[in-house]
Design goal:
alpha/beta; Rossmann fold; nine-stranded mixed sheet; two-stranded antiparallel ribbon; HRR_RAD51_Paralog; ATP binding; RecA_ATP-bd; ATP-dependent DNA damage sensor activity
Length: 236
């Protein structure tokens, strides 16, 4: 099991994120999705010096300086950022085909890397949204194929797969998880992750507050909401 780095979110998830599972975190822009991925990456590496993290940066939001800020804000002041960076297996891709190539390569690379605790995909939205123009059957088949590969990687290597997704709908009213806003990619995708976490901003006078809602979980209460703070230490 991995901690999210937020005690409140961990409690909401009955302890944290379970290995061998695919977890989706989604929400509108500026709600802390990438922050959650970065803080989990940094804290895993800071607390386990044998661990590594695989990070697929599709959205180009990865920031080593932000990881360093989070890690130091959490009390790991002696951590050498260069040594930490050496254990981040960083990759990029720009389309569905390079994404599938990444998954194929990961099958052998994860064995070479050893103690990989987390695979981050930030974000899946642009990759799979390209399937909207593809025939329904072919598009769904390609999505399911990618999911099965991710599922196999999670199980074989005993890691957590954290998938960042965006949101669609009315972004003008984002307080307390507006019913007009939902994860992108539609119902075909929403059936696949084991856990779905949805982030929205708090009220206008609480700009650093983020509402974390569980949309789907086998262990936690779907619909439960906790509020966390987004600051220099990440989502706390």
């Amino acid at each position: 099991m991995l901690s999210t780095g937020s005690e409140r979110i961990d409690q909401q998830l009955e302890g944290g994120l379970f290995s061998q599972e695919l977890i989706e975190v989604s929400g509108p822009p500026g709600t802390g999705k990438t922050q959650l991925a970065l803080q989990m990456t940094g804290l895993i590496l800071a607390e386990d010096h044998t661990a590594c993290v695989a990070y697929l940066d599709i959205s180009r939001n990865f920031s080593l300086s932000r990881i360093n800020e989070i890690v130091h804000s959490r009390g790991h002041t002696g951590m050498d950022v260069n040594k930490l960076a050496a254990r981040i297996k960083y990759s990029r891709c720009s389309d569905l085909y390079s994404f599938m190539d990444f998954l194929e390569a990961a099958k052998s690379q994860l064995k070479q890397w050893g103690n990989c605790r987390l695979l981050v995909i930030d974000s899946i939205t642009s990759i799979f949204s390209s399937l909207i123009g593809v025939s329904y059957i072919k598009g769904r088949a390609m999505m399911y194929s990618a999911f099965r590969t991710l599922q196999d990687l999670a199980r074989e290597h005993n890691l957590v797969v954290l998938i960042v997704n965006s949101a669609v709908g009315n972004h003008s009213n984002l307080e307390r998880g507006s019913l007009n806003t939902k994860p992108a990619l539609g119902g075909a995708w929403s059936n696949l992750p084991y856990v779905q976490i949805f982030l929205t901003r708090g009220r206008q006078n609480e700009k650093c507050r983020i509402n974390c809602q569980i949309l789907k979980s086998l262990r936690s209460d779907p619909g439960s909401i906790v509020q966390v703070e987004l600051n220099e230490a990440g989502l706390c």
